[in-house]
Specification:
single chain; mainly beta; seven-stranded mixed sheet; 50% strand; globular
């Protein structure tokens, strides 16, 4: 069983940066893919980024490519999402998730955090 807790959200002006953290209660095994998803009001949850267990490979949604960076520190049981050049359309609740499949489909992830709110003002 893995429990995830996100932190680092907040209010930022457009063009600013935030770094989200996702701390796991148990050891994040290297078999787990870690992903970040987001959900804006009235919209479906969407994939943002994912990283392999070893951290050697990453994939990003086109909407965040070049602006966001996902990373992980398995020794600290923590996954990060560095968000730069933020836009108002990035406003959403951001969730981290852990799963055994290499997928952008939220249904492939077994464990989820409670989410952290990110609000970008124009």
């Amino acid at each position: 069983q893995v429990q995830l807790a996100e932190s680092g959200g907040g209010l930022v002006q457009a063009g600013g940066s935030l770094r989200l953290s996702c701390a796991a209660s148990g050891r994040i095994s290297i078999v787990y893919t870690m992903g970040w998803f987001r959900q804006a009001p009235g919209k479906e949850r969407e994939f943002v980024a994912r990283i392999t267990g070893s951290g050697s490979s990453t994939v990003y949604a086109d909407s965040v490519k070049g602006r966001f960076t996902i990373s992980r520190d398995n020794a600290k049981n923590t996954v990060y999402l560095q968000m730069n050049s933020l836009k108002p359309e990035d406003t959403a609740v951001y969730y981290c998730a852990a799963g055994l499949s290499w997928s952008a489909d939220a249904r492939s992830y077994n464990y989820w955090g409670q989410g952290t709110q990110v609000t970008v003002s124009s």
